[in-house]
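Worked example 3. Consider a protein that binds guanosine-5'-triphosphate.
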Amino acid sequence: MKICVIVPTYNERENITDLVQQILALPIDAHVIVVDDNSPDGTGEVVDGLAESHNRVGVIHRSGKLGLGTAYLAGFKKGLSEGADRLITMDADFSHNPSYIPQLVDLANYYHITIGSRYVPQGGVVNWGVQRRFLSWGANAFARTILGLKANDCTAGFRCYHREVLLSIELDQIFSNGYSFLVEMIFKCQRAGFTVGEIPIIFANRERGKSKISHREIYKAMYTVMRLAFSRLKRRPHVQVSSLPDAPSQSDDPNQFVISQL
Ligand SMILES: Nc1nc2c(ncn2[C@@H]2O[C@H](COP(=O)(O)OP(=O)(O)OP(=O)(O)O)[C@@H](O)[C@H]2O)c(=O)[nH]1
Ligand SMILES: [Mg+2]
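Given these inputs, the predicted complex is written out as structure tokens:
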């Protein structure tokens, strides 16, 4: 089974080498696709160096900062064309600890999408101020309530998708591009009937490099949620969804957390 980890980067020079090395060192055979938007700090050249010395590392160079959503899409297309069965997305800034990747992949035996979730028992956030905590929690609660989303962490970017999911969802029709892309994706997955499981993660605030989130993104995300809310009036798409084995119950395996089943 081929596993691809897609890492969008914009000015992550200080993080990307360590991150890629940690992913390559995992006990699973994961490939990495970095999608760099011509980062002014030279992240792209650093990744070129990594790609030259490791055959499990690939890179997509884009001309400028084209947004997180289209970066994921570019990564999905490359991963799919290279035959990936599981496609993982994660941030480059170590907010998403790569050590959780094997758990995400394991749980994907039972769910079409698995999420590294902050908002489940034993999940959480460290080193965030009150304002940032409130913003993230509020955005998630808003999206869940208005859209009826069942996943506990709908704005999480740490996910594993089955190939089938990304082939069925009309990726080119996804409208949002920034952070709200994540909400739109999970909304489309739920509407199509794919199942979602979550593992708890501790999300750490970035230690190196700068944040790219802006007030504009927050307004855009609210607009996306309202737009998707109206699209619920339309008929659900008809998607063929494979059936997966039932996940073992949590009492059978204390290390396996299966929180939400859609
Ligand atoms: N290719 C690409 N990557 C992006 C873009 N915007 C953000 N990223 C990357 O997406 C990931 C998430 O962005 P962050 O800036 O960490 O956003 P955040 O996690 O919401 O905020 P902080 O952790 O506070 O910095 C990081 O790996 C970024 O480098 C973009 O326009 N293009
Ligand atoms: Mg971050």
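Take a moment to read the result before moving on. Strands lie at 3-9, 30-36, 57-61, 86-89, 113-117, 124-126, 159-162, 196-200, 202-204. The chain has eight helices and nine strands.
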